[in-house]
Design brief:
There is one protein chain. The chain has ten helices and twelve strands. By secondary structure, it is α/β, with parallel strands linked by helices. 45% of the residues are buried. The structure holds NADP nicotinamide-adenine-dinucleotide phosphate (NAP).
Length: 317
């Protein structure tokens, strides 16, 4: 049983998702949180990971560590996205299993589902068709993580569960244009255009794909929900259940940032999957729902962006 004094190791606790989980657990009175940066502990190294888990003896591991990036980064570095993610999650999952950690929460991504799966995406569509080629390396690693946790549930009756978030955004997001996801990239582009009085903003793709976005604090709440409840299935989608076109998203961000001007769509750049909407009825049936609307989440993210603008790290891939 988990209580407020349980030792909870959040792998990736400095990242966007990990730091949101950390803040939420602290705000709810959890007292024994543990985390290390990648400099202190490189999760790609099996022995170091085992030694660390042996030392801290966590009751729970939340795996929010991964090599994460947008279409460009995934396309350019397929081997790193496949291998580093496999190494990180394999080391954590296997160490948790061997060293008797009671509970493990694995975070994946909606890109695990086939490119042309029916919408909204149900958990049961996993492995029913080819993946979206632009991120298949990352997706293959995540699918392996889901299956490793499922295998441990089946063979050893472990409480290992996988949560598949839709696109996430929010405070502590990555705003580096070489590696960022679409929403923070747009915030930065519109902000810089406003600052420099540029009337035109060029955005990638046709603008027609449909996407769903979840504010990171809502994701953290879903993780806390999974922490405090033993979920009956191995895999759950986490999202809002609401999608919009990339064009609609751009117009919303443009308005919130306060840029006035034209948007040009560069359709020589890839669009990715035409539509990606999660079926979140399984989480809803258990009692979890998102709380933050897209407008409110973007406004909160933009405030954080303005407050931290001097401190963004440029991400080296
Ligand atoms: N962002 C999204 O839209 C999104 C959507 C769906 C799912 N997810 C999932 O949510 C999880 C977290 O994503 P995020 O957006 O929070 O990513 P993030 O901000 O890039 O954070 C990733 C974290 O992983 C750590 N990490 C990476 N490589 C490591 C290594 N070799 N050793 C130790 N730590 C390492 C980083 O540590 P350092 O900072 O110390 O280097 C960082 O704290 C991932 O599993 C991702 O698949 C994210």
């Amino acid at each position: 049983m988990i209580d407020k004094n349980s030792i909870i190791y959040i792998a990736g606790h400095k990242g966007m998702v990990g730091s949101a989980i950390w803040r939420m657990l602290i705000s709810q009175g959890y007292t024994n949180l543990v985390g290390t940066s990648s400099k202190e502990l490189d999760l790609r190294k099996q022995k170091s990971v085992r030694d660390y888990i042996r030392k801290i003896k966590p009751d729970v591991i939340i795996d929010a560590a991964a090599k994460v990036g947008g279409i460009l980064a995934n396309n350019n570095f397929p081997y790193a996205f496949l291998m580093e993610n496999l190494q990180i999650q394999n080391n954590l999952i296997d160490a948790a299993h061997r060293l008797g950690v009671d509970k493990f929460i694995f975070l994946g991504s909606s890109c695990i589902y086939p490119k042309l799966a029916p919408q909204p995406l149900k958990e049961e569509y996993l492995l029913t068709g080819p993946l979206e080629p632009t991120n298949e390396w990352y997706a293959l690693a995540k699918i392996t993580g889901v299956k490793a946790c499922e295998a441990l549930r089946r063979e050893f009756e472990k409480d290992f569960v996988s949560l598949m978030p839709t696109n996430l955004y929010g405070t502590h997001d990555n705003f580096d244009l070489n590696s960022s996801h679409v929403l923070p990239a747009m915030i930065r582009k519109f902000h810089e255009a406003k600052l420099n009085n540029h009337a035109v903003v060029v955005l990638w793709g046709s603008g027609t794909p449909m996407r769903e976005f979840l504010f990171v604090d809502d994701m953290a709440a879903a993780v806390v929900f999974a922490l405090e409840n033993e979920l009956p299935d191995p895999l759950y989608n986490v999202g809002t259940g609401i999608d919009l076109t990339i064009k609609e998203l751009a117009l919303t961000i443009q308005r919130i940032v306060g840029h006035e001007g034209e948007i040009i769509w560069d359709d020589s750049k890839p669009d990715g999957t035409p539509r990606k909407l999660m079926d979140i009825s399984k989480m809803h049936d258990l009692g979890w729902q998102h709380q933050v609307s897209l407008e409110e989440g973007i406004a909160r993210t933009y405030v954080w962006f303005l407050e931290n603008i001097g401190e963004f790290k440029e991400v080296k891939m």
